[in-house]
C-alpha cells in the first residue's frame, strides 16, 4: 500500500471514529428537570485563570453542563442546595465537592500524581512502585507517545540499563544489564534471557521487540532474575507491557504526525460499551518513512519504514468478581531494507594477496563512498525484511478469597521473510542470504496472587509454553562469480576454474519443537510491620527436539578431487538430530526492611537457569570433519546478588540506588568464524562471565510546572574465563584460530550510561483554548563499547550523546499539538558493527538515524470531559 493512501485512510478512519463518538455522547445526554439553578466559575488553582470546557455533573445523576470561555457554568435542576458535584477536565485532578451556595468558585489542581503513588504489577499484583523490592523502571504510555517511542528500539534511550541492537527484526539483541540474548546475529536455537510480556503473554522470539506500541498504558522494565514471579524463566529481567483496557465510558484518541524524510504516522483508538457488562477497544497504528540509505547499485533509497498494526479487545465483567479480556493483534512490517555500508577494513594476518584491498583491486572494484556516514551503500542483492507478528489471548481474573486467580491462554505466530547482501559490496560474492522462518507458540499460565493469611501473601503459578519453529520452507545461502577471489587461499590456478563457485550454495531445512513447563511461587512474609522476608522457588522442565539437514547445490559439477576439496572448504552437507531435556530447581531469597515511610531497603540472592541451546546456523569443521559435538549448547547457570534502597525524600520525589553482581557459568554466546558455511556464527559456551554494577535513578516534580528525571548506570561486564574463543577479526589467519579472551569485556555493554530528562509547563491559552505550554528534552549518553564477541581493537563503537526535544501545547479540551526532534544535534554514530562472513577484513556499520523532526496533532476525547 502506498504511503499517501495509508495516510489518508488512517486520518479519515480516525476522524470518523471520533466524530461518531461525539455524536453518541450528544444523544446520550439527557435533558434536566427545570426547577432550581446553580451558577459558578471553575478556575486553575495555581494561576486562577478560568477554565473552559470543564464538565460539572450532579453526583448520582446524569445531568451535566460545561463551562464557557469565561469558566462559567449554570445548572438548572429539580434538586435543592446543597449540591454534590463531580468536576473534571483533562489535565486536572477530578474533584468531588459539596456546594451550598450560588454563585460559587471551584478550583481545580493540575494533574500531577505523587511519584510514590505510581502503581505497578511487577510482582503480579497491583502495588506502589516504592514498596516493590525489585529495581523497576516505569515508562507511562503518555511519555512514550511524547518521546516518539513506537517500539523498544527507541525505549533504550529512556532506560540506560537496557541495551538493544538490531540489524533487522530477526537479528535483534535485547539485554538488560548486558545480559539476556546473544550479541550479533541471532540463532533460532537459543532462548532469550529477557522476558518480553504483553498483557501477561510471554512472546518468545527476539523479533517481538519490533512490535509497534499500540495503545500502551505502561511499560515496566524489571532488572535482574524474575523467575519466581513470571511464567517463563527470565534470568536477566523482563519487559512487562500493559495496554489500555476497554472502558465502559466512551472515549476516543486520534493522533497524526508528519516529519522530515517523509515520516507519516497515524494512530487511533476507540473504546466504549457494547452492552451492560461488555466493553470494547479497537486500536490502529500506521507508520511510514522514506529510506535513509541510498543504494548506488540500484539508484534507490532503502532502510525505510512501512508498518501497520491493529489491536482489538473485549472486556466482559459478568460479576464484580470476574473479569475476562479477549484480545487479538497483528503487526506487519515490510521495509525496503535492511542494508549496511562498509564502515572499515582491517588488515588480517593472512597473506598480502588475501587482504580485502588486494582482493577488490584484482576484481576492479572500488567502494563508491569514503564513509558509512555518507549514508550510501552498494549492494547487488535486494534487501528485504518482511516481519509479521500476531496472536490471540484470553485472560481471566477471578477474585477468590483474599486474592485473584488468573488464567492466561495465548497463541502467537511470527513469520520472517528476509533477503540480505551479506558481503556489503556491489560484487557477486554472497548473492543470496535468505533465512525464511515461521514460529508458532502456545502458552497457558495459571496464577493465584493475594493474601494467604494476615501476615502472608504471595503468588503461586503453573506455566506451559510449546514452540514450533522452523524454516519456511528453506534457508538459502548462495555464492556468486566473484566469490573465488575472496575464498582463494593459495596460489594454485585451480581457484580460477571457470564457474567453480557460481551459484554454489546450501539449502537448509530444520525444525525445533520446544516444551517449557514450570511451577513457581514467591511468598511475602510480614515478620514485623517493617521487616518482610520473601522466599521464592521454581521448578523448570525444558525439552527440545530438533532436526537439521543442510545440503549443498550448484557450482561446477565435477568429480575432480582437488576441485571438490575447494568446494567442500566452503560448504558441506550437515545433518543431525537432537532430543534433549533437563529439569532443575531455582529460586531466590529476598528481605525488605522499611526504616521509615521514606526509606525502604532490600537484599536479594537468586539462582536461575537458561535452557540448552541448539546450533541451527551451521556447524564449524576441523580437518574436513563437522564438529557435531557443538550442535548442543550447555544451559546457563546464573547466581545473582543485589542490594538496593528506595527512598522518597519528598512526596513528589524519588531517589533509588541498587548494587548487584551476576555470575554465569556456561554463558551462551554467539561467536564468529572465518568459515563461509557458518556465516551467521555459531553458539558456544564461555566458561564463566561476571557482570557487576551500580544503578542510580530519581524523579522529582516541582510544583505543577517542572518535572525532572535522571538515571545513571555503571556496568562492568567481563569474561571471567573463556579459554577457547575465536580470534578477533585482526588475528584471522594467524597461527591459532582460537584464543583465551579471559578478562575481556562482553560485547554491547557500555561501562557508563545515563539519561536526563525534564519538562517545563506553563498555563496559557491557544486560540481561546485553556491548557498549558510545555518544553521537554531528553539526553542520553553511553560510553564506548565492544561490538565483537571476541574483543577487537577495531570493532569498538565510540561514546555518543543524543538529544531529543519537544515543544507544544496541551489543551484542557483534549487537543494537543507539538513539534519534536530526535537526535537534534544530528550526531553520526553506529548502533552496531558487523564483520563480513569469511573474515576477509571488511566490516559493516549499522548507521543510526540522523536528525528527524516533525509535528504531531493529538486529540483525546472522553464522554463527560
UniProtKB/TrEMBL annotation:
Residues 384-824 form the TonB-dependent receptor-like beta-barrel domain. It is found in: Cell outer membrane. One of its GO terms (cellular component) is cell outer membrane. GO terms for biological process: iron ion transport. It comes from the Bacteria. Residues 1-25 form the signal peptide. Keywords: Cell outer membrane, Ion transport, Iron, Iron transport, Membrane, Receptor, Signal, TonB box, Transmembrane, Transmembrane beta strand, Transport. It holds the Pfam family Plug. Residues 129-238 form the TonB-dependent receptor plug domain. It is a multi-pass membrane protein. Belongs to the TonB-dependent receptor family. PANTHER family: FERRICHROME IRON RECEPTOR-RELATED, TONB-DEPENDENT OUTER MEMBRANE RECEPTOR. This is TonB-dependent receptor. It comes from Sphingobacterium puteale.
Amino acid at each position: 500500500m502506498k504511503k499517501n493512501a495509508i495516510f489518508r485512510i488512517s486520518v479519515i478512519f480516525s476522524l470518523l471514529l471520533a466524530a461518531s463518538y461525539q455524536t453518541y455522547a450528544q444523544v446520550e445526554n439527557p435533558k434536566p428537570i427545570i426547577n432550581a439553578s446553580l451558577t459558578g466559575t471553575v478556575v486553575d488553582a495555581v494561576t486562577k485563570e478560568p477554565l473552559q470546557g470543564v464538565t460539572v455533573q450532579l453526583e448520582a445523576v446524569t445531568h451535566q453542563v460545561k463551562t464557557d470561555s469565561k469558566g462559567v457554568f449554570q445548572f438548572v435542576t429539580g434538586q435543592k442546595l446543597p449540591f454534590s458535584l463531580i468536576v473534571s477536565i483533562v489535565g486536572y485532578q477530578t474533584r468531588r465537592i459539596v456546594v451550598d451556595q450560588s454563585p460559587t468558585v471551584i478550583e481545580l489542581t493540575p494533574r500531577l500524581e505523587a511519584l510514590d503513588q505510581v502503581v505497578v504489577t511487577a510482582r503480579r499484583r497491583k502495588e506502589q512502585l516504592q514498596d516493590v523490592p525489585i529495581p523497576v523502571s516505569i515508562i507511562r504510555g503518555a511519555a512514550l507517545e511524547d518521546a516518539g517511542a513506537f517500539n523498544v528500539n527507541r525505549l533504550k534511550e529512556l532506560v540506560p540499563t537496557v541495551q538493544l541492537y538490531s540489524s533487522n527484526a530477526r537479528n535483534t539483541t535485547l539485554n538488560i544489564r548486558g545480559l539476556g540474548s546473544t550479541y550479533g546475529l541471532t540463532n533460532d536455537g537459543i532462548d532469550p534471557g529477557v522476558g518480553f510480556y504483553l498483557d501477561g503473554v510471554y512472546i518468545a522470539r527476539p523479533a517481538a521487540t519490533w512490535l509497534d506500541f499500540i495503545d500502551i498504558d505502561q511499560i515496566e522494565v524489571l532488572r535482574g532474575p524474575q523467575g519466581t514471579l513470571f511464567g517463563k524463566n527470565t534470568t536477566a529481567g523482563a519487559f512487562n507491557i500493559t495496554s489500555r483496557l476497554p472502558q465502559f465510558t466512551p472515549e476516543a484518541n486520534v493522533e497524526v504526525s508528519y516529519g522530515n524524510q517523509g515520516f507519516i504516522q497515524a494512530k487511533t483508538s476507540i473504546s466504549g460499551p457494547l452492552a451492560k457488562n461488555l466493553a470494547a477497544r479497537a486500536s490502529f497504528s500506521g507508520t511510514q518513512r522514506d529510506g535513509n540509505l541510498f543504494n548506488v547499485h540500484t539508484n534507490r533509497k532503502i532502510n525505510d519504514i512501512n508498518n501497520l498494526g491493529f489491536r482489538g479487545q473485549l472486556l466482559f465483567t459478568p460479576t464484580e468478581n470476574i473479569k475476562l479480556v479477549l484480545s487479538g493483534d497483528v503487526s506487519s512490517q515490510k521495509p525496503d531494507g535492511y542494508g549496511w555500508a562498509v564502515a572499515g577494513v582491517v588488515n588480517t594476518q593472512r597473506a598480502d594477496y588475501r587482504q580485502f584491498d588486494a582482493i577488490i583491486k584484482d576484481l576492479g572494484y572500488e567502494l563508491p563512498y569514503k564513509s558509512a556516514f555518507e549514508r550510501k551503500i552498494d549492494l547487488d542483492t535486494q534487501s528485504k525484511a518482511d516481519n509479521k507478528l500476531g496472536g490471540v489471548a484470553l485472560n481471566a481474573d477471578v477474585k477468590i478469597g483474599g486474592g485473584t486467580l488468573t488464567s492466561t491462554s495465548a497463541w502467537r505466530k511470527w513469520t520472517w521473510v528476509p533477503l540480505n547482501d551479506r558481503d556489503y559490496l556491489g560484487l557477486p560474492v554472497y548473492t543470496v542470504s535468505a533465512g525464511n522462518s515461521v514460529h508458532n507458540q502456545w502458552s497457558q499460565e495459571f496464577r493465584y496472587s493475594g493474601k494467604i493469611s494476615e501476615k502472608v501473601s504471595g503468588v503461586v503459578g503453573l506455566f506451559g509454553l510449546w514452540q514450533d519453529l522452523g524454516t519456511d520452507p528453506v534457508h538459502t545461502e548462495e555464492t556468486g562469480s566473484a566469490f573465488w577471489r575472496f575464498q582463494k587461499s593459495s596460489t594454485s590456478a585451480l581457484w580460477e576454474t571457470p564457474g567453480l563457485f557460481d551459484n554454489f550454495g546450501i539449502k537448509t531445512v530444520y525444525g525445533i519443537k520446544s516444551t517449557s513447563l514450570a511451577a513457581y511461587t514467591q511468598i511475602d512474609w510480614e515478620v514485623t510491620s517493617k521487616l518482610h522476608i520473601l522466599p521464592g522457588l521454581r521448578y523448570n522442565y525444558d525439552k527440545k527436539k530438533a532436526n537439521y539437514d543442510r545440503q549443498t547445490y550448484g557450482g561446477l559439477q565435477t568429480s575432480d578431487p582437488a576441485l571438490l576439496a575447494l568446494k567442500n572448504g566452503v560448504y558441506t552437507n550437515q545433518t543431525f538430530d537432537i532430543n534433549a531435556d533437563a529439569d532443575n530447581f531455582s529460586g531466590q531469597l529476598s528481605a525488605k526492611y522499611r526504616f521509615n515511610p521514606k526509606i525502604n531497603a532490600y537484599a536479594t540472592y537468586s539462582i536461575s537457569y537458561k535452557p540448552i541451546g541448539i546450533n541451527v546456523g551451521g556447524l564449524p569443521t576441523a580437518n574436513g570433519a563437522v564438529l557435531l559435538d557443538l550442535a548442543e549448547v550447555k544451559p546457563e547457570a546464573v547466581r545473582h546478588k543485589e542490594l538496593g534502597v528506595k527512598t522518597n525524600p519528598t512526596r513528589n520525589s524519588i531517589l533509588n540506588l541498587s548494587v548487584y553482581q551476576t555470575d554465569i557459568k556456561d554463558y551462551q554466546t554467539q561467536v564468529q568464524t572465518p568459515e563461509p558455511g557458518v556465516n551467521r556464527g555459531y553458539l558456544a559456551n564461555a566458561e564463566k562471565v561476571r557482570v557487576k554494577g551500580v544503578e542510580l535513578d530519581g524523579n522529582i516534580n516541582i510544583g505543577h510546572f517542572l518535572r525532572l528525571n535522571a538515571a545513571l548506570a555503571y556496568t562492568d561486564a567481563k569474561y571471567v574465563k573463556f579459554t577457547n574463543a575465536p580470534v578477533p577479526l585482526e588475528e584471522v589467519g594467524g597461527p591459532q584460530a582460537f584464543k583465551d579472551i579471559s578478562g575481556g569485556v562482553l560485547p554491547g555493554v557500555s561501562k557508563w550510561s545515563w539519561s536526563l530528562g525534564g519538562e517545563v509547563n506553563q498555563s496559557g491559552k491557544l486560540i481561546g483554548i485553556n491548557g498549558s505550554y510545555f518544553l521537554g528534552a531528553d539526553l542520553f549518553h553511553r560510553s564506548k563499547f565492544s561490538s565483537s564477541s571476541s574483543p577487537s581493537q577495531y570493532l569498538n563503537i565510540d561514546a555518543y550523546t543524543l538529544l531529543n526535544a519537544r515543544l507544544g501545547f496541551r489543551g484542557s479540551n483534549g487537543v494537543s499539538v507539538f513539534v519534536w526532534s530526535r537526535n537534534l544535534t544530528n550526531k553520526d554514530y553506529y548502533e552496531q558493527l558487523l564483520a563480513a562472513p569469511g573474515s576477509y577484513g571488511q566490516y559493516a556499520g549499522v548507521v543510526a538515524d540522523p536528525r528527524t523532526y516533525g509535528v504531531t496533532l493529538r486529540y483525546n476525547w472522553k464522554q463527560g470531559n
